[in-house]
């Protein structure tokens, strides 16, 4: 089924999670859950939540092995199959109490509606035949008083899928959400890229249409809670956060939370969904095939008509997460991108709003990097001695004038420049200042990570590592990373990138030579 979200593998054998009560005694797992769509944005985050709730989880996987990057790999069973293959769905349903259907044809070909229809019918029929107690489906929130024929094709198809599952004879909960806010979700990534990259923009008129976003943490809380709904409950539920705002407001509030200047937004009526998707594709890395249905779904007001699910799945003590807080949760880890070693305090590791290794390549924020590798004619110990001694009186091993000029410019801008030097000429520890860097992580003999404290339109790091290649030779590995802040940050990176070969390339070569000299002296 071309274009469908695929479910990957977490291991060849079934491994259930057995919760432990306060006395340490093992308890039987509460429910056996099947997740179709575990490679998708929601599915990949739902599996660990179900496991944490004490349930066992089985994933239906078209291509086993695709999900080894998930944090829950090895804790859930995976069976090979496809939602359009009746036999494999039948096998996957055996012994299941609750079946989650999180498969959507977002970005699929022209026949996606028929594929959606067929897959939903197979899923519902096989669930009924297997005696599954409940189906849970996450669909899209539909606008009030808009005929189904006037909906976008993708929203219309998701509505039809919900209806097919409700008619399956198995008690079904169809949750309908509008914009989901969490790092990695297509809706959030589109919002973030548009806001960060465009200080001024001409937009479609739909940016002033009311919408009710919801934090991904609340979506997952609702999905997990639906596993234990009473058997006589079979219906749709609208789910949303506490804020009803326009897309224009969402962009302005994103800018405020991200520390960006207020955006100039000029809506015009001439941008059709097709033109809007082309414009989004030009400005952001979100694929046009995904951007178009997202843009089409925002043409109409999408606001919850009821909050009945709260009767069965109570809200947390402080209520659902608000829009601004949802942005903060999503941005905390996005800002640190791949460099998360010492940011455990930024948010709880593995939180649903965090990026996952299996998220799409275009998700997770812009992160520019410059990677260098150099074979070193010296043992790793000699190379590490040079790495740990970098900066201060020893300098940065490349184009001294360039580093000096950068230091002067930083001081003119009110920064620290190169005047701080280093605490100890030979040894570093976490937290040490090092010219206009600070030591963020150090693994003696292996890794030195520095965080920039110079004036920059973004966040920057420099990683220096020792390693070995397949032939056993010592290798110096160097990586400069930059997470831009707004359009100025992108312009800064592209403005200085022509000099990276001279500065960073020379640095890698000279550190390798210095290590060789150090080895020769000893």
UniProtKB/TrEMBL annotation:
GO molecular function: protein-containing complex binding
InterPro entries per the UniProt record, alphabetical: ComplexI_NDUFA9_subunit (IPR051207), DUF2867 (IPR021295), NAD(P)-bd_dom (IPR016040), NAD(P)-bd_dom_sf (IPR036291)
Coiled-coil region list: none
Boundaries of every NAD(P)-binding domain copy: 37-149
Regions that span the bilayer: none
The organism's place on the tree of life at top rank: Bacteria
Pfam families: DUF2867 (PF11066), NAD_binding_10 (PF13460)
Matching SUPFAM superfamilies: Bet v1-like (SSF55961), NAD(P)-binding Rossmann-fold domains (SSF51735)
Listed name of the protein: SDR family NAD(P)-dependent oxidoreductase
Phylogenetic lineage: Bacteria, Bacillati, Actinomycetota, Actinomycetes, Kitasatosporales
């Amino acid at each position: 089924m071309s274009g469908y979200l695929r479910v990957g593998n977490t291991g060849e054998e079934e491994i259930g999670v057995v919760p432990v009560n306060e006395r340490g005694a093992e308890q039987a797992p509460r429910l056996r859950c099947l997740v179709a769509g575990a490679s998708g944005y929601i599915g990949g985050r739902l599996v660990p939540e179900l496991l944490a709730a004490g349930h066992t989880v089985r994933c239906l996987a078209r291509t086993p092995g695709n999900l080894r990057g998930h944090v829950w790999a090895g804790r859930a069973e995976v069976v090979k199959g496809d939602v359009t293959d009746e036999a494999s769905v039948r096998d996957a349903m055996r012994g299941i109490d609750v079946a989650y259907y999180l498969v959507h044809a977002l970005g699929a070909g022209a026949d996606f509606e028929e594929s959606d229809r067929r897959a939903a019918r197979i899923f519902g029929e096989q669930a009924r035949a297997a005696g599954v107690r409940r189906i849970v489906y996450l669909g899209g929130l539909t606008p009030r008083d808009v005929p189904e024929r006037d909906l976008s094709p993708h929203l219309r198809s998701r509505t039809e899928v919900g209806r097919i599952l409700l008619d399956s004879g198995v008690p079904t909960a169809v949750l309908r959400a509008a914009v989901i806010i969490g790092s990695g979700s297509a809706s959030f990534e589109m919002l973030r890229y548009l806001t960060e990259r465009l200080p001024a923009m001409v937009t479609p008129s739909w940016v002033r249409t009311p919408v009710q976003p919801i934090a991904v943490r609340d979506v997952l809380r609702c999905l997990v809670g639906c596993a234990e709904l009473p058997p006589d409950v079979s219906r749709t539920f609208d789910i949303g956060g506490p804020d009803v705002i326009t897309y224009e407001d969402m962009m302005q509030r994103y800018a405020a939370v991200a520390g960006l200047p207020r955006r100039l937004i000029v809506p015009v009526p001439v941008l059709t969904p097709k033109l809007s998707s082309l414009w989004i594709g030009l400005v952001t890395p979100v694929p046009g095939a995904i951007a178009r249905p997202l843009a089409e779904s925002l043409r109409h007001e999408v606001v919850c008509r009821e909050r009945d699910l709260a009767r069965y799945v109570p809200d947390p003590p402080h209520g659902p997460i608000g829009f601004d807080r949802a942005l903060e949760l999503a941005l905390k880890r996005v800002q640190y991108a791949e460099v998360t070693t010492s940011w455990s305090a930024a948010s709880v590791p593995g939180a649903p709003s965090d990026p996952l290794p299996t998220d799409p390549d275009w998700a997770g924020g812009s992160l520019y990097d410059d990677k260098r590798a150099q074979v070193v004619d010296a043992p790793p110990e000699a190379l590490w001695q040079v790495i740990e001694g970098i900066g201060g009186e020893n300098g940065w091993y490349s184009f001294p004038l360039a580093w000096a000029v950068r230091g002067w410019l930083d001081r003119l801008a009110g920064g620290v420049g190169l005047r701080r030097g280093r605490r100890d000429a030979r040894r570093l520890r976490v937290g040490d200042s090092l010219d206009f860097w600070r030591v963020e992580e150090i693994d003696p003999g292996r890794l030195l990570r520095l965080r920039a404290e110079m004036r920059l339109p973004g966040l920057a790091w420099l990683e220096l590592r020792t390693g070995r290649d397949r032939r056993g030779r010592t290798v110096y590995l160097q990586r400069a990373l930059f997470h831009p802040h707004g359009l100025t940050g992108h312009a800064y990176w592209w403005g200085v990138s022509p000099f990276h070969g001279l500065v960073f390339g020379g640095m890698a070569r000279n550190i390798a030579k210095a290590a060789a000299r150090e080895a020769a002296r000893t």
